[in-house]
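Progress against Task 2.4 (sequence-to-structure conversion) is shown through the following example record, which the project officer requested during the mid-term review.
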Amino acid sequence: MSIQQKKQKRAKQLKVAKQTYYQTEKGKQCLRRSYVKRATTPHGKAQQTRSHMRGNSIKRGLEWNDEWWSNEKIADIMENGHCAITGIKFTIGTVGKTGIRNPFKASPDRIDITKGYEPNNVRWVVFIYNLMRSNFKDEDVDLFIKSLRNIL
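Structure tokens generated for the chain above:
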């Protein structure tokens, strides 16, 4: 058996061992603690966000450069920044019992959706605004918000 085959066999064994471990109560607790740490600390959220930005760029065939966004830079934005549109201060952490979504967390918004996450094409906004904007123009979202104000 070659060294490469031995490595592949060992990797499969480790994968099975991890799957088995994470099905135990102790393993589930470990996963929950890991998730909470990633979701509730600036550095953890920065790692998640950077990973998402990089993966999204690769998936869509957009330009990505590892030097554009460091975890430290993103963590600083999350801790000290405000939404470029609303001025709302970003919050870190989770909301509700599920702890999955925080509407006021920092979210990178590509100004021109045909381009990647280049620093001059990204503005940091609250997550809820970014969800609403999606692939629409700012003007469309502004019109929608103004219409809501008239109703409320």
